[in-house]
Structure prediction request, 363 residues.
Amino acid sequence: MAAGEEITLTNHIQHHLTNAKMCTVDGSVAFNKACSEAGFWTWHIDTLAWSIGLGLIFLFIFKKAANKASVGVPGKFQCFIEMVVEFVANNVKDTFHGKSKLIAPLALTIFVWVFLMNLMDLIPVDFLPAFAGFVGETAFGVDSHDVYMKIVPTTDINMTAALAIGVFLLMIGYSIKIKGVGGFIKELTLHPFHAANPVVQALLIPFNLLLETIALVAKPFSLALRLFGNLYAGELIFILIGAVGLMQLPLHFIWAVFHILVIVLQAFVFMMLTIVYLSMASSDNH
Amino acid sequence: MELMLGLKFIAVALLIGFGAIGTAIGFGNMGGKFLEACARQPELAPSLQVKMFILAGLIDAVAMIGVGIAMVILFVL
Prediction:
């Protein structure tokens, strides 16, 4: 939003939904507006900073709990961490039947990290962006309307897609590791339609390949878009509520209470589906 | 321009509305079955609840993706 332009509701919402961008134009670093033409190599610095920061907070908290863990009567903090770890461990044990040292830590990381990123949604929508605008205006002399800050990393589709691509690569990696390259190709081409006659089988292979490829690629897509859609819609409703004036306080409270469910549930579903997909990828009896 | 705006609103309404129908039917079926199962076998309720929430997330997803796209159409495009 340029200075002097009228502040409308649509402008306000768009300001909230725009990431802080960073890119290089003609060899020098440029920000936000200057990046509209930059194309692929544009960094969403607010998403990166908040997600990495929250990841470090997660690591710090759990490291601290692990260092201070005692076999005697545990404190409240240790109890809480143990509850989270046990909850994830039980889910992994129930769902993942193979043997792997990676799955449980991965599930714990995804659960807590996504939960923390979703939790940023409960911070009132104007607090941190307004603060960033204030800092930008006083410290860097930029118009506060030109400072963008989107504090919920999971409302940026790049973040959720990155998570889903990570899981997708692990799925392929596990498939190849457990079944071998041949087994992976067999899984893609010989199911779901199988025939004893080799000629019929050859005819069925392209059809099977199409079906299985779609089924494989649909997994990361649905994983990314589910998380993104839920959080984006929730965030937008927070922003809309924030625009109605003084009446927003009770409305905010009601929506926030409802949203707590969504926050935990989406983190849980993302974790659960990761485990299920990896379990499917590493099971031999298809 | 006016026509474009009108079509945009109709598209958003269709996206949210039809998505909501599907989710509503799904949740109705699943919630009803869950309560029925809990009434028959109360000891299974905790494990069924976890599974129900996973499925709730799955059912939610399609409609929520629709809502997300609708919001993008409405406010960003």
Remarks:
- Residues 2-76 of chain B form a domain with the F1FO ATP Synthase fold (CATH 1.20.20.10).
- The CA atoms of residues 5 and 36 of chain B lie 46 Å apart.
- Helices of chain B lie at 2-40, 45-76.
